[in-house]
Design brief:
Blueprint (H helix, E strand, L loop, with lengths): L9 H12 L19 E5 L9 E7 L8 E6 L5 E5 L5 E4 L8 E5 L8 E6 L2 E7 L5 E3 L4 E2 L3 E7 L8 E6 L6 E5 L5 E3 L9 E7 L8 E6 L9 E5 L5 E7 L4 E8 L8 E7 L9 E5 L5 E3 L9 E7 L8 E6 L2 E8 L5 E3 L9 E7 L8 E6 L10 E7 L2
Amino acid sequence: MFRKIPLQLGYLILFVGLFCACQSKPIVISPTPSPTPAAPFTFVDSGQDLGQGDGVAIVVGDVDGDGDMDALISYADKNSSLMLNDGAGKFTQRLQEFKPSTSAAFGDLNGDKFLDVFITEEAINEVWLNDGNGVFKLSDQTLVSTESSSVALGDLDGDSDLDAFVTNWNGNPDQVFLNDGSGKFSDIGQELGNWFGSDVSLGDVDKDGDLDALVANNGEKSDNAPVLWLNDGTGLFTDNSQRLGFTNAYAALLGDLDGDGDLDAFIANSSHNGANPADKVFLNDGKGVFSDSGQNLGALYSLTAELEDLDGDGDLDAVAGSWKAGLRIWLNDGKANFSDSKIRLESLNNSGVAIADMDRDGDLDMLCSTNMWLAGDGQPKLWLNQTFP
C-alpha cells in the first residue's frame, strides 16, 4: 500500500532518511522474544539483514517453484527488492531491476501456472511475467495511472483470468484494468470516486457471484472513509453509498470474521488530520450491508493490516502495523470479538505485513516491511512463530 507522508513531517523524515542512508551498514538486531503474551505462541526476530529502505508494501508467493514463500518488497526510495527463500526462512536478494513502487501483487496473469507480478509505480503500472524460475521479464504494455497507490488481483469480469483493481491517491479516481487472458491489460475507462485511495480488498460481499471491492481512503480530505464498490459481474462497479467509518483508513480487509459464511470487514485507521485512529470491525448481514460492531481496537496510527488464523482455532485473527509502534496482534473468539494478544514486537513503522509459513515448520510467520518516517529505520523484519508447549 502506498503511504503518503503527512506534510508536517517532511523535513524531519528527510533528516532521518539521510542519517540512515549514511550509515556504513544496517543495524541487525539479534533474535529477541516478545514479552509473554496472552496467546499460546509468540514471535522472535530471525535476525536477518534484509536490507534497508523506505518500505511501502510487501507480498509473498512461490515465484521459483521450489515450494516455499518468496517475497517482493516495494520501496519508495530505491528499486523494489525480490527476495528468494531457501526453504528454511533465510532470504537472499535476487538482482532484478524492479523500479521503486507503491505496491505489488502476485498472480498467474498469462495462464502458464507461474506467479507473475503486477506492480504500481504511481504514474505507470507494470506487468512482469515469470519464466517459472523466478526470473521476470517486463511485458510490452503501458498502463497509465495517476498516483497509483495499491492493487488487488481477481477475476472481475467472470472470464476466469486475473484482472486488476488499482487505487489512486490525491483525489484521482480508482481504475479497473481487464486482462485478455494472456497478461495483456486494458483500462476500461471507469473513474471510481475522487478520494485518496490507499488499499483495496476484493470479495463477493453480496453473494451474487462476482468480486466487489472495498477501498480504504486516507488523505487531506475530511470525508475519507472506506467505500464499497459493487460489481455487476462484468467488471463495472457502482458506489453503493455505504461508508465504513468516517475516518482516515490505510487498510480495508474482507474476511468472514464471525463465522456466518459472509465477508465482514476489518478497517485499519490512522489519526491523519485528527481522525479517530481506532481500528474497527464491520459485520455483514449477508447481503452486503455492513454495521459497526462497536469495537475500538487500539489507538495507534495504523499503516497496514492482514487477516490470518494465527492461533489455529479456525477463525481469522488480525495483525496491524503502525507508525511509531510495533505490530499489534488481535485474537478473534470466532464471533468477531477481538482481544489484544499482548504480544509486542520491537519494530516501528510497519508499512506492510505478509503472513505465511516462511520456514516450513507448520505455523504462520510474519514478514514485514518498514518505512523511514520519523522513528523508523526502514529495515524489513522476519518474525518467526514460536508455539508454547
